[in-house]
Every structure is written in C-alpha cells, then in structure tokens.
C-alpha cells in the first residue's frame, strides 16, 4: 500500500491528539522513521522539515483543532502549552 500525504496528516492529528503536545523535531523524526525520508526535506534554515504536501493535508485534517506554538516549535491541543505546566519549576 502506498502512503499518501493525507495518510500521514491523519496520523499526525491522531498523535497530537493523544500526546496533547508534540515538538516539530520529534514529529519530523517520527514521520521519517514510520513513513520514510521521502516525506522529509531540508528547509532553508538547514533543518529537516515535513513535506509541504503533508502540511497542507494536515491543516485540512485538523480543521483548527491543533494549534502551533511558534516559540516552542510544537503543535498542541487545548490551552496554550504554558498553561498546562502548573507545577512549579525548580527555580521557584
């Protein structure tokens, strides 16, 4: 069976929904491991990125339910990621 960009996008939504937060680097590694390096490319920044066709299908698949946190380079479900970590840090 051939994997499509839509298949990967649906899988991404499932993973993010289950995990509640997934970093971009972790997602890139998981896609490459599970679906193959043909779904990953090196972007202008020199870092591995998810194929643009997959990201296009991903936006369609989650229909706004998944949010992107630019500073953390992570996708998440629910409130802002900072709001989820209510535990005091060691520095407090």
How are the SSEs placed, and which strands pair?
Elements: H1 5-19, E1 21-23, H2 24-35, E2 40-42, E3 48-50, H3 52-62, E4 67-69, E5 74-76, H4 81-84
Antiparallel strand pairs: 1-5, 2-3, 4-5
Helix pairs in contact: 1-3
Query: For the CA atoms, what is the radius of gyration?
Result: 14 Å
> Structural class of the secondary structure composition?
alpha+beta
Shape, per Cα inertia axes: globular
Unreliably modeled segments: 83-92
Notes on the protein architecture:
It is a single chain. A 3-stranded antiparallel sheet has the order 1-5-4. Strands 2-3 form a two-stranded antiparallel sheet. Helix 1 crosses helix 3. The chain has 4 helices and 5 strands. The longest helix is centred in the N-terminal third of the chain and has 15 residues. The C terminus is likely disordered. The protein is of the alpha+beta class and 92 residues long. The radius of gyration is 14 Å and the shape is globular.
Describe the structure concisely.
This protein is an alpha+beta fold and 92 residues long. The chain is 46% helix and 16% strand. Strands 1-5-4 form a 3-stranded antiparallel beta sheet. A two-stranded antiparallel ribbon has the order 2-3.
